[in-house]
Amino acid sequence: MPTSTSTARTHRRGWPHDDAYRPGRFTGWIVPLAFLLLVEAGARLELIPARLLPPPSELAHTLWSLAQRGELLPHIAASLARVAAGFVIGSALAVALGLLVGISRRAEALLEPSFQALRAIPSLAWIPLLLLWLGIDETPKVVLIAIGAFFPVYLNLVAGIRDIDHKLIEVGTTSGLNTQALIGHILLPASLPYLFAGLRGGLSLAWMFLVAAELIAATKGVGYLLSDGRESSRPDLVLAAILILALLGKLSDGLLRQLETRSLTWRHARQHADKAL
């Protein structure tokens, strides 16, 4: 008679999302393409007011006009540079402080309450203070994006370190590893799944904070296009900017996901081994 453990494993192997179903390469495009076709058809049949929701063909024409005038690429480049700088700075600080809080109870008692309070502050609330402190150039924009990227990375890394089996840490300590070697050989590798989850969440928030950042006296950027479309009552420009943000966010997340897959090959191999048992 099979044990409950073997029965549970049999059920897990039988789930359709594990073995039976293999999504196609373009499966994820079905829903957005169907939505765009419905909107286009609704606009053509005058079921959807174009002044509220312009058809995709008009959005394509708007993007093409911006590209022809040489305005599209500078806006995208400016936003990419800001997100990249803010994400790198925020993530690097989050990893450093997350390791410190994760391995030191004194640091946790000292810093954790402040971080939890700062995490609750909305992005727009930082703008007046950053303007007063840092002026209106690129610095406050990058700092605001870094704040958005910091907290998901920090929280996930601390959770990952706390979830590490203490026996691994004891083995490393008894083997004579110093703090630096313990971090490099045990803590970071064991918490990599949590770290990548935090990095992807931080990257997503970096794009969200970008819009707020580009409200700080910006003359270039996708967020500036949003503001310009609102002020000129052009829903096609607003939706075109939203579409650009969605595509840039998806592409950057896809790159980070590929890096995660390559870095966590050992985890996938272990999962396949567990399923085979």
Describe the structure.
The protein contains 14 helices and no strands. With 277 residues, the chain is mostly helical. Helix content is 80%, strand content 0%. The N terminus is likely disordered. Helix 5 crosses helix 11, helix 7 crosses helix 8 and helix 11 packs antiparallel against helix 13. It has a domain of 149 residues: MetI-like fold, CATH 1.10.3720.10.
Features:
277 residues, mainly alpha, MetI-like fold, disordered N terminus
Structural class: mainly alpha
Helix content bin? over 70%
Summarize model confidence as the mean pLDDT.
84
Rg value? 24 Å
Q: Please state the second-level CATH architecture of the domain at 73-221.
A: Orthogonal Bundle
Terminal CA distance: 17 Å
- Tell me the total number of β-strands: 0
Strand content: under 5%
Q: Which shape, going by the Cα principal axes?
A: globular
The H-and-E topology, N to C, reads as HHHHHHHHHHHHHH
Largest sheet: none
- What is the CATH topology classification name of the domain at 73-221? MetI-like fold
CATH class of the domain at 73-221: Mainly Alpha
Low-pLDDT stretches: 1-14
Give me the number of helical elements: 14
| CATH superfamily (homologous) name of the domain at 73-221 | MetI-like
